[in-house]
Amino acid sequence: MLPLNIITLMKLCITAFTFCLAVCLLTIPVLASLQSEVTSVSGIQVQGTNHYYVSNRLPLEPSRLVSLPVGSIQPKGWLLEMLTRERNGLAGHLGEISVWLQKTDNAWLSKDGEGQYGWEEVPYWLRGYIQLAYILNDSHMISESHTWIEGVLNSQRLDGDFGPNIKFENDGSRDFWANMLMMFALETYYDHTHDKRVITLLENYFKYQLSVPDKIFLTHYWQKMRGGDNLYSVYWLYNRTGNPMLLELATKIHRCTANWEMKGTLPNWHNVNIAECFREPAMHYLQTHNNTELEATYADFKEVRKRYGQVPGGMFGSDENCRVGYSDPRQAVETCGMVEQMFSDEILMEITGDPMWMDNCEDVAFNSLPAAFMEDMKALRYLTAPNMVISDSKNHAPGIGNKGPFLTMNPFSSRCCQHNHSMGWPYFSKYLWYATSNDGLCVGAYSENEVTAKVGNGATVRIVEITHYPFEDTINFAVHVSQPVAFPLYLRVPGWCKAALVSINGVAHSVDANPDSFICINRLWSEKDAVVMTLPMQISTRTWTENKNSVTIDYGPLSFSLNIGENYKKVDTKSTIMHDSRYQKNANPLLWPSYDIFPTTSWNYAIELKNSKLAFAPQVEKRAWPTNNYPFSASNAPLRLMAHGKLIADWTIDKYELCDVLPQSPVKTLAPDESLVLIPMGAARLRISAFPTTTLK
């Protein structure tokens, strides 16, 4: 028989062992939660309702993604430089130039809606300007924005209408178009200030719209095409108030808007209308849950690109209006069309959770939009084309489908693009991140920034993203939290990327992520957790079969153009404006010069192929990052490709003083092989981006 003290000791040991075992068993789930679950998902699915950001109310389709309030994302790096140049350039100073932004006799500042100036120009400019003001926290710009917002808030009349009182002469119907634009600015203002007067104004205005008979609602061209912008704001308000009247109005708006669900065609071929309006069926789908409406938006996108979009840069060749027989890459697109396409892509990413929309947004943002401006962003051109070797103030019609000086860089010109361009980069910044339905975060587009948001159990997380993307393939994320918090983080895998890599705190995670998918990291995040996303870039080519078998050379998300020598010639700003442009009496053209750009080197080259592939693999030259943080410069671009080609002597400037249409590839030429320098398409104000080819024997 064991002594009592030994028995007691054994019991104590058993008790201690049992306690330790229980602690270990209880700790296993905690330890497991500290591990990262890294998976690949094809798209963002609905997994509840976000608890911290305004999402779709029933009966609307549940939100897959939710945009964050302005100010949640602080751009850094090259994107901050773009925004700063925009502030210091035309967008930030347009109030000193444009007669339409003149405060004297402006209907947007009038209680009765009367005034000499007052249509789309103020809200076109203001919706980007106010975003820019809040992002940069610029007190002067915020004050200027609020002057216009106060004018709008004070303009509501007894019937609920607000803003300029514009009616069509032939039938007396109301022109609602400009108000559609102003509501975007009001929504940004509300998200920043929570001023309840915005809610009151919109509620009364939408009651007024509902009272207007169908036969005189959304009449005439612009508003008939663009009713989807009105629809967007109705859903915005419904998600904040739940007023069922708004769903009735949404049905009416869709009923009275042009039919963007036509099979195999579009109701209109104006380039900005297409870029802006094709999203309308997808927005109405939120209410009807009818997949055919969602499919119609995809079909519209594909239809215009099938006919006129056999070009690089994410857009399509239309000039102002698409024309049958004019689909060569020398056909251009309005700067308005670029920023509207980006906005549509950003909204559709939110609605569908489909990463292909952000692929297209990045394509436009990186390859098309930067070249529409002078580097200091103090002048822009109305039309920009993928193949464009002269940019001047001459009339190039009918080669270009516009009569007048539509290719010159002019800050006083282009009544629409001059004002509307302001939203491009601020909205791109706003949609770098989204909140998810399961209280996580999702990367929309990649660029250096900091995001601060509520996630998981309501904790605030700050994620610092450091990268030179799209010029480099590595994106670093540093997570900052005051205490551990669990939430999912979705990282978009672009459609061009075939082997995305991810590591967490230095540990690589194997995940087989397809192009156009997401890598989802579910984890209990702690202070200073680090994620590295690598998107390996490779040289690839795209062949445009409908455009004479021409070829574009890509490297990751960037398309490349021939480095053409550029001669910038100052021209008189006032004498080279478009017919409907107007400027203030005190606007000084000497402070706002205009430029024609002419080539100083040969541009008419074919790329050499062998067995349908590049005969000589282009070499990637990685150069020092520009000290001014501006990479969209022909001289300072941090990436160049060294390629080979041959001169095509009979591909010349044509009778319209444009580069002639592409010759059919392959082209026969006896010219010698030459080394060519290619630069990012977005850095080339003059460019050949869709090349003819010649066969190397």
Q: Quick one: biggest sheet?
A: 9 strands, mixed
Structural class: alpha+beta
Count of DSSP H/I helices:
17
- Runs in which pLDDT lies below 50 for 5 or more consecutive residues are 6-33
- Assign a percent range to the helix content: 25-40%
Rg over CA atoms, rounded to whole Å, is: 28 Å
Distance between the termini: 100 Å
What best-fitting shape do the alpha-carbon axes yield? globular
Q: What does the average pLDDT come to? A: 94
Strand residue content: 15-25%
Beta strand count: 28
Description:
With 697 residues, the chain is α+β, with helices and mostly antiparallel strands. The chain has 17 helices and 28 strands. Strands 17, 18, 19, 22, 23, 24, 25, 26 and 28 form a nine-stranded mixed beta sheet that branches. A seven-stranded antiparallel beta sheet has the order 3-9-10-11-16-13-14. Helix 4 runs parallel beside helix 6, helix 6 (177-193) packs parallel to helix 9 (227-241) and helix 7 (196-211) packs across helix 10. The N and C termini lie far apart (100 Å). The model is unreliable at 6-33 (pLDDT under 50).
In short:
This protein is an alpha+beta fold.
Notable traits:
nine-stranded mixed sheet; 20% strand; 17 helices; seven-stranded antiparallel sheet; 697 residues
Topology:
Elements: H1 4-34, E1 37-41, E2 65-67, E3 73-75, H2 77-88, H3 90-93, H4 121-136, H5 139-153, H6 177-193, H7 196-211, H8 221-225, H9 227-241, H10 245-256, H11 271-277, H12 280-288, H13 291-308, E4 333-334, H14 335-352, H15 356-367, E5 383-384, E6 387-388, H16 417-420, H17 424-430, E7 433-436, E8 441-443, E9 449-455, E10 459-466, E11 474-481, E12 485-493, E13 501-504, E14 507-509, E15 517-525, E16 530-534, E17 539-544, E18 550-555, E19 558-562, E20 566-571, E21 594-599, E22 605-610, E23 613-614, E24 619-622, E25 639-647, E26 674-680, E27 687-688, E28 693-695
Parallel strand pairs: 8-12, 22-28
Antiparallel strand pairs: 1-15, 2-7, 3-9, 4-5, 6-27, 7-8, 9-10, 10-11, 11-16, 12-15, 13-14, 13-16, 17-18, 18-19, 19-26, 20-21, 22-23, 22-25, 24-25, 25-26
Helix pairs in contact: 4-5, 4-6, 4-17, 6-7, 6-9, 7-10, 9-10, 9-12, 10-12, 11-14, 12-13, 14-15, 14-17
